[in-house]
Amino acid sequence: MRVKVTRNFQITIPADIRSRLGIKEGDYVEVELDEGGGVILVKPYRRRWTTLRLGRSLSPEDIDEIVREALDEASSSS
Q1: Biggest alpha carbon–alpha carbon distance for the chain
Q2: pLDDT tens-place string over residues 3-22
Q3: What is the pLDDT of residue 48?
Q4: Which helix (H) or strand (E) holds 31?
Q5: Assign residue 28 a region: left if phi > 0, alpha if psi is -120 to 50, beta otherwise?
Q6: 39 phi and psi angles, rounded to 5 deg
Q7: How far is 38 from 48, CA to CA, in rounded Å?
Q8: How far from 16 is each of 11, 24, 43, 54, 70, CA to CA, in Å?
Q9: Of 7, 18, 41, 50, which cross-links 23 as Cys (Cβ 3.0–4.6 Å)?
Q10: How far apart are CA 8 and CA 22, in angstroms?
Q11: Rounded distance, CA 31 to CA 43, Å?
């Protein structure tokens, strides 16, 4: 497929490819350059978001554990 680069250097991922990769509006994608082959790779970026139920009381220990999990996740995805 051929797509056009816009004035802001943006491209549109064709609907068929978005569908096959499960990419939806608002999703993030990873973009890599394979310089050897001159190929741009686009991959869905899946991140597990930590959510908290509003109105729930959190102890200092709960908060420490949530922060520890988030830091572990951030360091493992780097």
Answers
A1: 54
A2: 999 999 999 999 999 999 88
A3: 61
A4: strand 28-34
A5: beta
A6: -120, 140
A7: 31
A8: 15, 12, 14, 38, 34
A9: 18
A10: 25
A11: 7
CA 13 to chain CA centroid, Å, is 16
- In eight-state DSSP terms, residue 14 is P
Q: Are 29 and 23 in contact (CB under 8 A)?
A: yes
Whole-angstrom Cα distance, residue 11 to residue 55? Answer: 42
Residue 31 near residue 23 (C-beta atoms within 8 A)? no
Report residue 10: phi and psi, to 5°: -105, 150
Q: In this model, does residue 53 exceed pLDDT 70?
A: no
Give me the residue label for tokens 């554990």: 65
Residues in Cβ contact with 44 at an 8 Å cutoff, skipping those fewer than 6 apart: 21, 22, 23, 27, 29, 30
Q: Which two tokens stand for residue 19?
A: 């569908």
Distance of alpha carbon 55 from alpha carbon 38, whole angstroms: 51
Query: How far is the C-alpha of 52 from the C-alpha of 58, rounded, in Å?
Result: 10
